[in-house]
Amino acid sequence: MNNTEIIKKIKSSFKNVSxxxxxxxxxxxxxxxxxxxxxxxxxxxxxxxxxxxxITGIDEGIDSTNLGVVYNLxxxxxxxxIEIYIPVDKNDPKIFSVEKIWRMAxxxxxxxxDMYGIVFEGHSDLRRxxxxxxxEGFPLRKDYEFPKTWHGIVVDKxxxxxx
Amino acid sequence: xxxxxxxxELLLIKLKMGGNKINNQNLNNNTDEEMVLNIGxxxxxxxxxxxxxxITDGEIIKKITPYIGYxxxxxxxxxxxxxxxxxxxxxxxxxxxGSMNNDFGYAVAVEKLMDIKVPxxxxxxxxxxxEMNRIASHLLAVGVFGLDVGAVTPxxxxxxxxxxxxxxxxxxxxxxxxxxxxxxxxxxxxxxxxWVEKTYDFLDYFEPKIIETNDLLTYxxxxxxxxxxxxxxxxxxxxxxxVTGPNLRGSGVKWDLRKNDTYSIYDKFDFDIPVGTxxxxxxxxxxxxxxxxxxxxxxxxxxxRQALDQMPRDGDVYESMPKKIRPKAGHIxxxxxxxxxxxxxxxxxxxxxxPSRLKLRSPAFTALSCMDEISKGWMLADMLTILGSxxxxxxEIDR
Lengths: 163, 399
Prior knowledge:
The complex is a heterodimer. Chain A has three helices and nine strands. Chain A is of the alpha/beta class. Chain A has a single domain, classed as 2-Layer Sandwich (Beta Polymerase, domain 2), CATH 3.30.460. In chain A, the strands form three sheets. Chain A has a five-stranded mixed β-sheet. A two-stranded parallel ribbon of chain A has the order 6-7. By secondary structure, chain B is α+β, with helices and mostly antiparallel strands. Chain B has a single domain, classed as Cytochrome-c3 Hydrogenase, chain B (Orthogonal Bundle), CATH 1.10.645.10. Chain B has 17 helices and ten strands. In chain B, a hairpin with a 2-residue loop joins strand 8 and strand 9. The longest helix of chain B has 29 residues. At the A-B interface, strand 3 and helix 3 of A face helix 10, strand 8, strand 9, strand 10 and helix 14 of B.
């Protein structure tokens, strides 16, 4: 199936799905519907997205109130792909965890939690993965402020910006 | 219970285990023997700075929790403040064993985002250096895996041959490990005079050395005993965990991005995709994963030979290189086949000279994440074999 057919198929079952035409036809879903949609994508016989390629966290910018999560899915059986974008509110970032559906999501979701502070509901072991447990803040957010000290060690800033 | 009876029972248990995985029923029987054992972060068998917290019952592993992040430098945050060209040296340092392949993946991604078509000569150069680097990387994987299970000699032999490739790269771009060679829209230098001939010499030299490695390690009885039937990854588990590259192919899934989702000019070459067949044990065991790498050395040699024969000799490598890299607003997810598997780049551009988001999807990250699943019930020594067979690079996992 090509991208248009996949989108048509998804739209026939999920009415609230919209398509982002600018961004190479990716699907935008609200976080409430992600639980049902993810199960549909994995289990539907014609779609059968058995492999999750990548999960990426995104900050839409300082002005925006949204963070986002991008899911790149792929079917090993039919060799077709789809990209799904889910915006989440910055003040209350919560999203359904797909850890049980695609096992690789376990670590990728932990990484996004680590970097963006997005909470994945239903995740079995949501801890920081790359940063130390006592790290403050979420580094990949655009409004992140670099710490001046760490455990009493002064982190000198030698020069501003990059040349 | 008399001592004799106890001894007999222990013997029976030992016979029952004889290299076989302990089934889950026995695992759940709690005994007083449970112990927490920390392996790493400084341990030669962890291939870098990786800490494995293992819960063991005697010598049997009950649970493994990998702790990563000791090499973390958040290159993704750095890249938000760097231009697209400046990001390349950072990407070099992610997978420091296969730097060429990393740059290749990044260049392909940015070129897709900007709709750049690179000249044929550049494509050939890229394929040649990427496959050379794949050989170097697999040689390290094979040698170090041998070292993990106690075979020291093959390691030295592999490094001897790897050194020749590094010398060729040094002649090509001055660097031995971190090349910064493949740039967006081109490469940093054309092949120097005499390089192609030297590469032909290397290919002729290296081809018989694979047989030597096979004699030394692959069909060695001790090596087979240590690796066959150990750490089986079933194909559906591998796909669900996003395990890719030689690890997935070892499980019998014929999947290689160079053929199945082709990029650059890989469709012009004739080569096979080696898969695990369970020749020494079960499909998807450590030996299969190892042997897929050995077979890939041969396939890479085939590709390099064809590429060197077909390559156009004259042409400018800077022809399609953009003066300024400013992709229009948009995003791309592109993936290429690195020595460790499916290397993906998610790049989001807001139209400025710096990417607003750059994410590297690392194949070793997913391979390590299934560690707990596949090594439950094995003995401690087998766990290190399994870890070695996955061929992880911590620089890429921690980024």
